[in-house]
């Protein structure tokens, strides 16, 4: 056992233990306490066990059967770091790795199986075939000419070149920057991940891809006289440590804590239907949640979406165009190929107010007779791909923010996303903002807390009066739909009409 002391700011915070003799096929670091961390490197699998040729032999052996309509194998290897620092203490530090493979087979319906033991690939292929034979849900799948490619998202500064000490040191420094009077809880969260994927299909596709991602967030909780308010800011993208180096942490730490304290004295919002200005973050979440999920073709196919049967119909004002684009460089939701070996494509969901596309995967593009657009995504090798968004946003318009303000006689300017819910079948939604401001006769007035808006997506899209020229797509997060996948969203400032109320 080799031991190494990790020193941060002159203090001994942890002991790293290295064990070179474990027989498992992954490696990990776990925080046992805020003072002691155990680093356990486990021997990786021999390279000859994960050669493409070996997997190809298994694929060719079984997919040649006439009863198999389609088959694909996804192998995935990940390495990641997670770090959480709260009030100056390391609460969590994890450096983990995992490898595994998932097999999907279509006979009458789908069969799927996965394992983290790469010596059992043939075994899980047999399991997936058995499941596909007994599946009672008949379906079809889009097939295409084979693709052979090896792609990688480049890192300006490689994540592996930044050691744990530097990441923890940064976290402690940023956490201290959040200090302010009445701030009771300060949190810094960091994660990075390098995902290497190998995709093989019965069509003959062989696609290797490497995508590194970084995600950070800082938050402050302010308390005074029995009141409590929280504010936070998130950052992220595809790439390397250069993503971190571009962040002005001092500015954002001051911004976040100042906002949390200011909200303690903010007023409750007015209630009723009124004009609402959504900032770029809230506009992005609004379009992701209320429209994006309704445009996913699996919901459309099952007639669980308000947008079912509406292709080619006008559903919004002519000035509105909504896009989902996984090809945007550096964004958190970006990828080159989806998890079904289809190139990710820029998709206009709404063009000039008309619904022109659904997001789809191999299955839904076949069933709905749509051009495939590469939106079949899976959380990991052990999950089946589903129709998912990537980077979803509202295209900019011509309005300056000052011009939008001038349009508001009485309303609310809502900033940021604090969560919400949407019923994609009815289109009804409710979103809470991080903060708001009263707007009267074009002027921003008092600070508002716990402000929410609700309405119906189609009504809100038709009530849009102005779309700003200040597009921002810089609000990374993780979208849940039974599985978590990285996404980004955004837009410009948008003026519409909705029902406003408080959360109390």
UniProtKB/TrEMBL annotation:
Residues 158-264 form the Metalloprotease TldD/E central domain. GO terms for cellular component: cytosol. Residues 271-498 form the Metalloprotease TldD/E C-terminal domain. GO terms for biological process: proteolysis. Pfam families: PmbA_TldD_1st (PF01523), PmbA_TldD_2nd (PF19290), PmbA_TldD_3rd (PF19289). Keywords: Hydrolase, Metalloprotease, Protease. One of its GO terms (molecular function) is metallopeptidase activity. Transmembrane segments: none annotated. Signal peptide: none annotated. Coiled coil: none annotated. Residues 72-132 form the Metalloprotease TldD/E N-terminal domain. Belongs to the peptidase U62 family. This is 504aa long hypothetical tldd protein.
């Amino acid at each position: 056992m080799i031991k190494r002391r990790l020193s941060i700011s002159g203090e001994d915070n942890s002991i790293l233990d290295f064990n070179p003799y474990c027989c498992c096929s992954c490696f990990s670091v776990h925080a046992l306490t805020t003072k002691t961390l155990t680093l356990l490197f486990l021997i990786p699998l021999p390279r000859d066990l994960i050669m493409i040729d070996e997997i190809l032999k298994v694929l060719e052996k079984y997919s040649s059967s006439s009863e198999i309509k389609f088959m694909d194998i996804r192998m995935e290897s990940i390495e990641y770091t997670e770090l959480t620092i709260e009030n100056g203490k390391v609460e969590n530090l994890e450096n983990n790795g995992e490898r595994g493979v998932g097999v999907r087979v279509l006979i009458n319906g789908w069969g799927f199986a996965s394992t983290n033991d790469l010596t059992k690939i043939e075994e899980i292929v047999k399991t997936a075939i058995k499941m596909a034979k007994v599946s009672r849900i008949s379906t079809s799948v889009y097939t295409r000419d084979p693709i052979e490619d090896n792609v990688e998202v480049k890192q300006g500064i490689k994540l592996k070149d930044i050691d744990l000490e530097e990441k923890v040191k940064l976290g402690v420094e940023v956490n201290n920057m959040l200090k302010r009077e009445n701030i009771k809880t300060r949190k810094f969260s960091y994660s990075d991940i390098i995902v290497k994927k190998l995709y093989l299909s019965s069509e003959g596709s062989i696609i290797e891809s490497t995508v590194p991602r970084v995600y950070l967030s800082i938050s402050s909780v302010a308390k005074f006289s029995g009141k409590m308010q929280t504010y936070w800011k998130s950052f992220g993208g595809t790439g390397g440590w250069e993503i971190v180096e571009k962040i002005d942490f001092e500015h954002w730490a001051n911004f976040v804590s100042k906002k949390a304290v200011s909200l303690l004295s903010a007023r409750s919002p007015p209630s009723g239907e009124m004009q609402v200005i959504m900032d770029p973050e809230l506009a992005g979440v609004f379009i992701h949640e209320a429209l994006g999920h309704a445009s996913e073709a699996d919901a459309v196919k099952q007639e669980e979406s308000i947008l079912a049967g509406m292709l080619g119909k006008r559903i919004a004002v002519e000035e509105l165009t909504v896009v989902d684009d996984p090809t945007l460089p550096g964004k958190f939701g970006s990828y080159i190929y989806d998890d079904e070996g289809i190139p990710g494509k820029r998709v206009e969901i709404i063009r000039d107010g008309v619904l022109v596309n659904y997001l789809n995967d191999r299955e839904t593009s076949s069933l709905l007779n749509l051009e495939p657009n590469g939106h079949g995504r899976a959380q990991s090798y052990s999950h089946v791909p589903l129709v998912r968004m990537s980077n979803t946003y509202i295209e900019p318009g011509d309005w300056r923010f000052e011009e939008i303000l001038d349009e508001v006689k009485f309303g609310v300017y809502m900033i940021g996303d604090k969560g919400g819910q949407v019923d994609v079948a009815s289109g009804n939604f409710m979103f809470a903002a991080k903060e708001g401001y009263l707007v009267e006769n074009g002027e921003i007035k008092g600070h508002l807390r716990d402000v929410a808006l609700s309405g119906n997506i189609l009504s809100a899209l038709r009530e849009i009066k102005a779309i700003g020229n200040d597009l921002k797509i810089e609000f990374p997060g993780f979208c849940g739909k039974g599985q978590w996948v990285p996404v980004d969203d955004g837009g410009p400032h948008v003026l519409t009409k909705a029902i406003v109320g408080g959360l109390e």
